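Reminder: ligand-aware prediction takes two inputs, not one.
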Amino acid sequence: ATADIGLVGLAVMGENLVLNLESRGFTVAVHNRTVARIDDFLAGRAQGRRILGGRSAEEFVALLKKPRAIMIMVRAGSAVDDTIELFTPYLEPGDILIDGGNSHYLDTERRASRLADRGLLFVGTGVSGGEEGALNGPSVMPGGHEAAWPHVGPMLQAIAARTPDGTPCCDWVGAGGAGHFVKMVHNGIEYADMQMIGEAYHLMRDVLGLSAPEMSDVFARWNTGRLGSYLIEITANILAKTDDVTGLPLVDLILDTAGQKGTGKWTSEAALTLGVPAATIAEAVFARAISALKDERVAASRVLEGPATSFEGDKDAFLADLELALYASKICSYAQGFALMGGAAREYGWRLDFGRIAHLWREGCIIRAVFLDDIHEAYMEEPRLPSLLLAPFFQRATSEASAAWRRVVSRAVLSGVPVPAFSSALSYFDAYRSAKLPANLLQAQRDYFGAHQYERTDAPRGQFFHTDWTGEGGVTASSTYNV
Ligand code: NBP
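Here is what comes back for the chain with NBP:
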C-alpha cells in the first residue's frame, strides 16, 4: 500500500482535488463507479503523476496506507450512502471516511454516529470554491470525528487556500455535522450576496439606465473598496463580456430564470427549524423561485401596473448610495448567517469559533471578500458577540450607511423595482435595533382568539396572563410552549 489518501468520485470536483493533493506531494488512489472514468483520468490529466487507479473497491482499498483515509466526492444524497456501503466491508476500525460533497448536515450527523458504531471515523467536510478552487486551493470546512483530524488535517490544510497572512482556509470546525452546517450557511450567504448584487444591477439598469459596460466599470470600482470580493469581481467581468455572435453584452442575452441546487433552501429551512431570523437569506431563495416563473411574470407584466417614474437625480450620488446600501445589506445577511451558526451550535452542542470560520471563508471560496477580515477581527475582539451588528466596527459601518441605504430602498419601492434582499436586510436591521416591536399586539391577538396568554411589561418575565377579552370567554388558558 502506497497511497496517502484515496478519492472516490472522479467528476469535476473529485478530479481537481486529486490533482491538487498530488501537487502537494501526496500519492492518491482513485476510484469511480463508472470504471471507464478511472481509465480516462489515468490516461489523461493524471498521467505521469503519483495517482493510482483502483478499479474495484477491494483493489482501491488495498492501495491505501493505514489508517486508510478515503475522500468521497460523489453527488450528495443516496450516492454517499451507496459509496460508504461499498467500502466499509474492506475497512478496519480507525480508518477514515471523508465526505467532501454538499451533504445535508443531518445526513452527516446520522452517518457519523452509524460509522462510529463500527469504529470508523467519519468526517463531513464542506469544500467550496468550485472547480477552480478544488484544483488550486479551496476553502475546506471539516467536522465529525475529531480523532481523524491529526491524520487528515495536514493533507486538507496542504490543499486549502490561504489567507493573506498565510493561514490555511481549513481548520477543524466541530463535531458531527458542524462542517457541513458551516458550508451550508456559506452557500446561504452566497445566495444572499448574489441576490444583492443582482438588485444593485437591476437598479443601475432600470432606474439609472446604465449600459452593461458602464455597470462593469462601477463594479470594478467597487471591487477596490469595502465591497472587494470574488463575486463583485466576476460581476464586473461578466458585464464586460460581449456575445461572439451578436456583439451584444452577453448578460443581456441570458434568460432571467435562476436555478438552484438546494443549499440555500436548506439554510432557510434550518433557520426556520432553529427559530433564527435569517429572512434575507430566505428572500434570496424566494427571489430565485419567482425568477423561475418566467411565463407567469411575462403575462403579469402585461396586466399589473407599476409606477411610472423617471430618474432625475444625480446618478453618481445614487451610485454612492447604492454601494453603501449593498454593503449594509451584506453586513445584515452575514449577521444572520453567523447567528444561524450560533443557534445550531447551541442546539447541537458544537463549539464553533466564528472568528476562525470567517477566516476559513477569506480565500478559496465563492464568498471570499476583504470584508471577512473585519468579521474575523470582530469575533477575535469579542468571541461571544450576540450579533455581528453589535461589533463596534459594524455599528459604525451601518450607522454611516443608514441614510444611503434608506434612500436606495425608498427609490426602489417608488420605482417599482423589487429589492427583496436590500429591503429585508433593512427591516432586519430596524427590527434588531428596536427596543419595542409591535408583538405586544400580536400576543394580545393570540390571547384573544386562542387563550395563548401573554407576559406583562409590569410583571416578571415568565409570568403569564390571560384576559377574557369579550366577557364571553372562560378563564382556561392554553399552554405557553413555543416551537
Ligand atoms: P456530481 O455531483 O455531478 O457527481 C458525480 C459523481 O457522483 C460521479 O463520480 C458519479 O459517478 C458519482 N455517483 C453518482 Br451521480 N451516483 C453514484 C452512486 N450511486 N454511487 C457511486 N457514485 C455515484 O459531481 P461534482 O460536481 O464533482 O460534485 C461532487 C460533490 O461536490 C457534490 O456533492 C457537489 O454538491 C459538491 N460540490 C460541487 C461543487 C461544484 O462546483 N461542482 C462545488 C462544491 C461542492 P459516475 O461517474 O459513475 O456517474
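The CA atoms of residues 262 and 285 lie 9 Å apart. The chain has three domains: 5-176, 183-432, 438-483. We will return to this case in the review session.
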